[in-house]
Amino acid sequence: METQKKLLVLLNVILIIMAVSYLETKTNLATSENVPLNVPVDGQVKTLVNDVGGNIYTLENKLVGQKKEDGYLVEIYREYEIYKDNNGKIIKSIPTSHFEYLRYAE
User: Is the pTM of the predicted complex or chain greater than 0.70?
Assistant: First the structure.
């Protein structure tokens, strides 16, 4: 009888440890903002389209700033519409309202 009680207590402790481990891992994966998975590279081309005038239109992310916030280094990228002529010369660069923020632990 005493052995059954010890076994039951041990089994309950193992189940509690497993449940806490699962929840902690799930929480860590959901809040891993300091580990970027899809890091945009400065000047990375996202799409390539020809506009009506035959110019090449691309969307590029450019690093526009950095700041320190709550023990993290935050990089700020802004998306730009880049228009080029047929020779590859940049005609105009228009900033969009899309920003990406990447946090890195210091």
Answer: no
CA distances to 3, 12, 45, 77, 103 from 66, rounded to whole Å, are: 61, 49, 21, 9, 10
Structure tokens belonging to residue 52: 């009506």
If pLDDT is split at 50, 70 and 90, which confidence band does 19 have? Answer: confident
Residues with Cβ within 8 Å of residue 54, at least 6 apart in sequence: 86
CA-based angle 90:93:94, to the nearest 5? 160
Task: State the SS3 of the chain.
Answer: CHHHHHHHHHHHHHHHHHHHHHHHHHHHHHCCCCCCCCCCCCCEEEEEEECCCCCEEEEEEEEEEEEEECCEEEEEEEEEEEEECCCCCEEEEEEEEEEEEEEEEC
Tokens of 83: 């228009």
